[in-house]
Amino acid sequence: MLPGMELAGGRIIVDRGFRAVVPNITPDPETGIGRWSDADTAAAIRDGRRPDGTLIGPPMPLGVYRGLSDHDPVAVVAYLRAVPPVRHALTERSTYPFALTPLGPPVVGVPDPPEEDPVARGAYLAGPVAHCMDCHTPPLPGERRDWSRIGAGGVPFEGPWGSAVARNITSSKEYGIKDWTDDQIIRALTQGISADGHRLAPPMSGRASIWAQLTERDKHDLVAYLRSLPPQESDLASRR
To answer: What's the structural domain count of the chain?
Structure first.
């Protein structure tokens, strides 16, 4: 990323048959989202709909973002308002080999996870906030996930690094992370290093610096949630 171009868009993501052009989400009024209202921006995040009514497609994880509490999109909008505007016009548009369909009615009334429940907080962090489970749950045809096998892995990722497949992160002893210590799970998240000491493949390792900014409580709540996942006795992924 060029200095000064943070959130200015332009990255091309080619995956599973589509070609997505990442938009400029800085508050520039001409080429970004500076003319969007706060409600417009929140609707784009949770409902997948732009102010002009057009639909947002993958890889935006809209299915899980619909589970964000009412407070969190407000915080995201406040952050996006605070970043410097960057004038960066994009001439390409995303293309999909399938029709985009509305996700449903506008999302309203989603509460925060209960503060006193580490597993519930961890599930919220791993789901709507960080969409870990969207990447670590087996795919079905199209963009759907087999939520009956949550955490079993199997989603492929192609990139400059080659090919990597999300691993099983359930409590399975043979295929998952049951034998990993809490510290090893946190190290994988925050440093991109597996329990046996090898470097995790992208895109997981590339996000370690982001996960490293989690609070200590958030890290341990994530571990509590992963420990609660029923074991999925399948190895759909490389162990990278």
So the answer is: 2
Residue 183 pLDDT class (50, 70, 90 cuts): very high
* 79 pLDDT more than 60: yes
For residues 79 and 160, what is the distance between their CA atoms, to the nearest angstrom? Answer: 30
Region at 196 (left for phi over 0; alpha for psi -120 to 50; beta for the rest): alpha
Structure pTM?
A: 0.89
My answer on whether 17 and 89 are in the same domain is yes
Q: Is the peptide bond before 203 cis (omega within 30 degrees of 0)?
A: yes
* 135 and 76 inside one domain: no
Mark whether 130 and 188 lie in a shared domain.
yes
Domain end marker among 55, 82, 107: 107
Do 80 and 158 fall into the same domain? no
Residue 221 lies in a domain: yes
Structural domain of 62: 1-107
pLDDT digits (tens, 9 = 90+) for 218-231: 999 999 999 999 99
pLDDT of 239 higher than 60 = no
- Tell whether 67 and 161 lie within a shared domain: no
- 172 occurs within a structural domain: yes
Per-residue pLDDT, averaged over 179-204, amounts to 94
